[in-house]
Amino acid sequence: MHGVGGTTAQEMLGDPRVQLITGDDTAACYRRTDDADAEQRPDDYRGEPVREAYCWSNLTSGNGARALWLILVPFMVANLAHWMRPAAPSEHPAQRIYDLLVRILALTLTVLLAAAACEVALDLTAWQCAGTTVCAAGKSWMGFLSPDNSGWWSAPGRRLALASMVPLLVIGFLWGLSRRTWSAYESASPPPRLPGTSRDTPVAERTALSREGFWYGRRLVARLRAAHTTAGVLTVAAVLLAAAAKADGDGGHPVLAVTGRALTALVIVLAAATLIVVWRTARSEGAPDVSSDHLVVRTLPFASLAVLGLTLVYTGWARPGARSHGPLPGADAFGGIAVFQGVLVLALAVTAWVLQRAARDDARTALRGMGGPAVALLACAVGGVLSGGVAQRFADWLDGGATPGQAHAPIPGPPVLLSWQASVIPALLVVVAAVAVLAAVRVVIVRNRVAKDVPGLYDPREQPDASRTKRIAATIAGAGLTDSAPVLIAATSAVTLVLGAGAVIGAWLTGRAPGRATEGAPPVVHAAAETAESLGSWLMGAGVILLITMGRRAYRDHSARRTIGILWDVGTFWPRAAHPFAPPCYAERAVPDLTWRMATWTERFDGRLVLSGHSQGSVLAAAAVWQLDLVTRSRVALLTYGSPLERLYGRWFPAFFGPPALTGLHREMDDWRNLWRFTDPIGGPIRLTCEGGRRIDQGPLRDPLSFGRTLQNPLPAQILGHGDYQADPVFGTVRAELIARLSPDLPGQRPADESPKGRPAQGSSGKSSG
């Protein structure tokens, strides 16, 4: 199984002629063409394994359009927070509180996205610019909305009703994307467990990844999708109601005022129902969740659309004399969303602290169990940057050469809070740059220290080379930066919390953008505020463009895919437990694929397996082995290399990949070996000792394989880092040991039309390999 970036079946099998055995264009198993019918010729393969490659790269990559999924990064990061909880016992009461807080926080991100779309379409376009002669001049596409034309659409309420189609289309797009990926990913059913198998694993070594329903999130994602869609629609309705209620409160018709209050009550009732659905939508992993949704859940989105339709009629009703001026009523809600998110993050931190105190093993847990709250805060920050960046850039385009929020601008511009949030971005980048400088200094120090020991790792007959030594030492030092990620995330999160709170306070106290708020201050302070505001506004917009550009490059450039892809693949490995609009979980397709493959092959041929996985493929391999019943699991040996199982997953997701869980995985398998290098920035040791004192880890492997030029290696050997572990002779040796360990109990393979005694033959899932 390949890792990040993907490897073709031809490369994995070392043969240009391969044949698809089972699967489709998205994910499939391949063999060499010569081995396609190996089960029909068992005598030709006695003592020799049949290799098979599982290719899953199309689950996470594809055409450049998938780069647009990076706009959903805040949703993905919030979903990660759900899985980063400390490794406390599953029955601990704080577990449910933690999960609930993350789900509500994820819901606020959907509301923030809908509010940002409303800000661009309703506030900046329909309310401010279309209602201002100076702004609307020269924009022919906006002419029919201008009040100077006295057209039917020139009334403020009708302009808002028409513009509300934009955020509604955004929500509909997310709903459709989530539903399409839900059908392709979350609907792959796990294989049935063999009857009569029982779990005698110690409770401390059990992990949720071994539960039968863990990788089947079909119903849960459907319920969350209904709730989040409803929340987005209700956000649009609330914005419209706020604007119309302001007009009715200024001497409007009493019937319209009563209608507005009735619609507001309906919105509140549906919002309460949405919160209840999110409250009750917790994962059920003991068995695949195939239950039908309640009528309330199924009808909630349709009810919200009906209320929105009534609100559109109410908002577009004729109100003689009504006009739009200033910002749209209710625009200050951005501040309320930011404060509410901050409260949720702090509550999540307290809950994580309680869980960490009850954790079974916290020796290497990242950020001492605070990883979940830290990334949840970053999800809110990224969501704010994306929404604020789009609003700032759009406002800057609408008002021509003016600066949004300044006195000379033709329109008020985005809410004041967005300007304050933009102003703190330069300060945040200074902190990040300082941490990066410290990291660079650390690399130099480690490089100089390691350089003294590098020549001793090789044959003393090889000629020492100072330049070669320095390069190897620098690679080792750079690879070690991965272990410093908690420091960067902790510093960024802490500064983000402080600066975010300062932005909210500054916006509420002054009610003006930083440049205007400091007009009476000393010239240095005023200049600094204006510079930070302008630079921050530009950086928010540039951040959106940079994110999309990086995404497109990651899908087109193989080297960039390896660099950026590990973060993306870690984020999309986990099921959508908190946010249904997050990028889809490829493991909900890959893990059932692998589990079905191993279970059906061992069932039909009573065979044994050596499952090898590189990088992220090793994580999928471990997850698939956990899904096997105990009988099948005992027939599988695992070979991992360049594996982030402990270095990334064990530290950041201790409740699922902590030392007890990995110990239990090895106990129930036939055997396990792990290869790693000091030069690998992603993979690392498992740090477990097998029963009998034998270690799982084989390494660190030498990299490069030779230090200087020799008779056998006249050219300098390449530093492999995270790739090409198969090139190391140790790989072949360890794989041969695992195969030999399985061989004494390995019977001759039966022809495909026979099945084990006492077990019914299953439907063919395609030929497989041992």
Automatic annotation (TrEMBL):
Segments forming a coiled coil: none
Keyword Transmembrane helix (UniProt): yes
Keywords: Membrane, Transmembrane, Transmembrane helix
Xref: InterPro entries: AB_hydrolase_fold
Entry's transmembrane regions: 97-117, 160-177, 226-245, 257-279, 300-317, 337-355, 375-395, 424-445, 487-509, 535-555
SUPFAM superfamilies per the UniProt record, alphabetical: alpha/beta-Hydrolases
Domain of life: Bacteria
Keyword Transmembrane helix recorded: yes
Spans annotated as Disordered: 742-770
Protein name, entry field: Integral membrane protein
Native source species: Streptomyces glebosus
Source taxonomy: Bacteria, Bacillati, Actinomycetota, Actinomycetes, Kitasatosporales
